[in-house]
Backbone:
């Protein structure tokens, strides 16, 4: 690996950690459950990205296994969130009319 690659990987990992910090703000503030769920998915994806970058920067292949397990857990966490809390679809604009065809075809 070229000598400039290791500092570049550490900088990229720090940048991804910055996006994770912004995601934590979104988890706290919301405003809806859907926003919170997407921010939590961002946290899981960002953590996997950081682990992959650090695995390459430090030449620690065990971090690849940890990243894989975290990716699987993030998928399960998203499914559990939707199942337990639920995500409501956005409210329809009443002035636009129906969005689906009715039973009689009109």
Residues:
């Amino acid at each position: 690996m070229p000598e400039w690659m290791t500092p570049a990987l550490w900088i990229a990992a720090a940048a991804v950690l910055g996006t994770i910090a912004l995601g934590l703000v979104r988890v706290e503030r919301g405003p809806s459950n859907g926003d919170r769920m997407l921010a939590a998915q961002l946290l899981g994806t960002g953590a996997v990205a950081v682990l992959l970058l650090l695995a390459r920067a430090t030449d620690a292949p065990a971090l690849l296994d940890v990243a894989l397990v975290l990716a699987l857990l993030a998928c399960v966490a998203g499914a559990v969130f939707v199942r337990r809390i639920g995500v409501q679809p956005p409210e329809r604009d009443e002035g636009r009319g129906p969005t689906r065809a009715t039973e009689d075809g009109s």
Observations:
- Helices lie at 5-29, 33-58, 62-84.
- Residues 5-87 form one domain.
